[in-house]
């Protein structure tokens, strides 16, 4: 047990998650699909083995997307790892969001709010990350 605690160095910083892009994909049936580009950052001098990531994303104030992935590679020291996740909205949320989007004069940018819980092997609990900003629908970089 002492060895396990020594592994959790007090100087270790939690990983960070940033939104790089949000792309609207072709819809399937009644649900709208999005491809969300995330960047998971390891600010430490040690490898962080990520077990999984759960996330919730609001677009233009609408809580639309929730999801999980266990497809996050091990984070090497001082690295930024791109991760793409596909998310699907529910029908009612999608209709409200799309109606608002179509009535908007600015169809090129979305405001977003991301909450992500990162589960790292060896950490006692999940690390919660919150971020908000703007992202281009044209695939350009996000503005936190």
User: What's the level 1 CATH class?
Assistant: Mainly Beta
Portion of residues within helices: 10-25%
What is the number of strand segments? 7
Strand order of the largest sheet: 4-3-6-7
The chain-level structural class is mainly beta
Order of helices and strands: HEEEEEHEE
What integer value in Å does the Rg equal? 17 Å
Q: In the CATH classification, which architecture applies?
A: Sandwich
**What percentage of the residues does DSSP assign to strands (E)?**
over 45%
Which regions have little confidence, pLDDT < 50, spanning 5+ residues?
A: 1-7
For the residues shown, what is the average pLDDT?
Answer: 81
Q: Overall 3D geometry? A: elongated
Q: Span from first to last CA?
A: 40 Å
User: What number of structural domains do the residues give?
Assistant: 1
**At the third CATH level, what is the topology name?**
Immunoglobulin-like
Number of contiguous helices: 2
CATH superfamily: Immunoglobulins
Structure report:
- The protein has 144 residues and is mainly beta.
- It has one domain (2-136): Immunoglobulins (Immunoglobulin-like), CATH 2.60.40.
- The protein contains 2 helices and 7 strands; from the N terminus they run H-E-E-E-E-E-H-E-E.
- The protein has helices at 2-7, 91-103; strands at 16-24, 33-42, 50-59, 62-69, 79-88, 109-120, 127-136.
- Strands 4-3-6-7 form a 4-stranded antiparallel β-sheet. Strands 1-2-5 form a 3-stranded antiparallel β-sheet, with no helix packed on it.
- Strand 1 and strand 2 form a beta hairpin.
- The longest helix is centred in the last third of the chain and has 13 residues, at 91-103.
């Amino acid at each position: 047990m002492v060895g396990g605690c020594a592994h959790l160095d007090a100087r270790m910083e939690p990983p960070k998650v940033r939104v790089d892009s949000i792309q609207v994909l072709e819809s399937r049936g009644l649900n709208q699909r999005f491809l969300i580009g995330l960047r998971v950052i390891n600010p430490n001098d040690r490898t962080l083995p990520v077990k999984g990531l759960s996330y919730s994303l609001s677009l233009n104030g609408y809580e639309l997307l929730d999801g999980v992935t266990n497809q996050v590679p091990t984070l090497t020291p001082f690295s930024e790892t791109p991760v793409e996740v596909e998310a699907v909205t529910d029908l009612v949320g999608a209709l409200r969001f799309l109606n608002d989007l179509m009535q908007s004069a600015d169809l090129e940018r979305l405001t977003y709010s991301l909450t992500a819980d990162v589960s790292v092997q060896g950490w006692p609990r999940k690390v919660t990350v919150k971020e908000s900003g703007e992202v281009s629908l044209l695939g350009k970089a996000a503005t936190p």
